[in-house]
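A quick word before the example. In earlier lectures we treated sequence and structure as two separate objects. From today on, think of them as two lines of the same record. Here is DUF2200 family protein written that way.
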Amino acid sequence: MHLNSIRTVNLSLAVCGVKVHEVEDPLMRLIRYLDRLIDELAKGKDMAKILRKL
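And the structure line, produced from the sequence above:
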């Protein structure tokens, strides 16, 4: 599965207290990244602003 490379821009972010770059399993790393994205969208933030920040 190939996804947009923008998801790897900043892997230093933390989701639920776990630093994404420390997660060894690529699938779990992607899940945590998407979890953060969904949380930001649920807060009503604009997608373009979220992706610039991440």
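Notice the following. Residues 5-53 form one domain. We will return to this example when we discuss secondary structure assignment.
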